[in-house]
Amino acid sequence: MSSSSPRKHAGPGPASDQPAVPEPSFSERARTLVYLGRIGSLSTLSRKQPGFPFGSVMPYGLDPRGRPLFLISSMAMHTQNLQADPRASLLVTQPDSSGDPLGASRVTVIGNVLTIPKPEVPEARQLYLDRYANSKYWVDFEDFSFYRMDVLDVYYVGGFGVMGWVQASDYNLAQPDPLADAATGIIEHMNTDHKDALVLLARTLAGIESQEAAMTSVDRLGFHVRLKTTDGMKGARIAFSREVTNPMETRKVLVEMVQQARRRQVRS
Fold this sequence. Notes:
disordered N terminus; 3-stranded antiparallel beta sheet; 2 domains; alpha+beta; Split barrel-like; 29% helix; single chain
């Protein structure tokens, strides 16, 4: 896992005497978001209107370094743009985000999009077909070819006030969060069956009294909650008591944390 610090865009937040709650690095979060995404917005440089960006809806695959893979036709305008100038960016937004879209996570990956050398095409082909089984119907058409973005830079936005640049080397080395595929199910389960437990954890571990609590995200190091309080809506980050690597460990740790919080509440 990459642990390097992102190049922050926003200034430092208000001073606090509370220790920072551990979170995945921006590079990890960017890799996770690109991994979860299936379709992005590809911006190429227009041949018809030089200097202007040309946006296209673009399915993509991923190689082990997180580099986007594209299966595109020579007849497509974005392909013709790339053949003239390989510079491009791919915007990927948080899938199934609810509420204000500006509060959702998104990542912009910047790089050069070039045809994949023939010896590397079989691997790229398999990786792409693993994501898009239906593409088997046109993958071998003569006008279709595989392209890959060689990442030069990455900009990650995790919501309001959470943003920064990520070096390409850190992005390439990072891995998607181990809970990425299970996160939606964990969140739905906690918000449906364990709302009281979230209120208790927010009170004992984040020091916030609330009438309602909802988990909004979860990762290997902890989770975020949205809290309804007498002072309005608030958000908090709560760390797991230890790092988790799969849903079973997550359930076990959450049960332990709730039990400890209940004991603490009784003693107080």
